[in-house]
Amino acid sequence: MSSPTPQPYGPNAAPSNGPSTIDRTAAAALQDALGAEHAALWSYSLILAFLPGDQLAQARADEEAHRVLRGAVEQTLVQIGTRPISAQPAYATPKPVTDGVSAAALAVVAETDAMTAWRSVLEHTTDRGLRQAALNALTESTLRCAHWRVVVNTPPAIPTFPGQP
User: Fold this and answer.
1) Is there a contact between 96 and 46 (Cβ–Cβ < 8 Å)?
2) For residues 82 and 56, what is the distance between their CA atoms, to the nearest angstrom?
3) Longest dimension (CA), the chain
4) How far is the C-alpha of 17 from the C-alpha of 20, rounded, in Å?
5) CB 3.0-4.6 Å disulfide test: which of 9, 19, 85, 111 passes with 145?
6) pLDDT per residue as tens, the chain (165 positions)
7) Rounded to an integer, what distance in angstroms lies between the CA atom of residue 55 and that of residue 33?
């Protein structure tokens, strides 16, 4: 499966015409979203080691979605003159990952954290292209999270207010 070329403002969104309206608050929220994408990618590398074979394709697709989004966020930050934060060498998991169930539970955490970060971007910018990209990222994370919530039997599959802390 080939991945789409990362675009500024994230996949599936076009930047607004005219000068960027990404201010410091929006850039900080975008940095937080980048941090959540870094953490999600690290988490999926761990998740893949423990999932049963029938769940690997979905986890790999989810990992790739985060990889593409991370690249787009980094590109956007560079374009607005902000240095993207680096990934940490490792991240703490809320619970030890020892089997498929705990791995799927970590996927729920990774997607929930991503939803929260993207909702924050949506709330902290007036830039039309960035708002659309944040909404797309929030929607996609919500759908990925719903899948993993079903796997670990955590109702409701889709939270009432996705991304709400």
Assistant:
1) no
2) 35
3) 50
4) 8
5) 111
6) 333 333 445 444 434 444 466 899 999 999 999 999 999 999 999 999 999 999 999 999 999 999 999 999 999 999 999 999 999 999 999 999 999 999 999 999 999 999 999 999 999 999 999 999 999 999 999 999 999 999 999 999 988 788 886
7) 26
Whose tokens are 């924050």? That residue is 120
Encoding tokens for residue 89?
């060498």
Closest CA to 120 of 62, 34, 44: 34
Cα–Cα separations (whole angstroms), residue 158 to 87, 142, 145, 162: 28, 7, 8, 7
pTM of this prediction exceeds 0.70: yes
**What is the CATH code for 24-151?**
1.20.1260.10
Calculate the alpha carbon distances from 122 to 40, 117, 126, 135 in Å.
19, 9, 8, 6
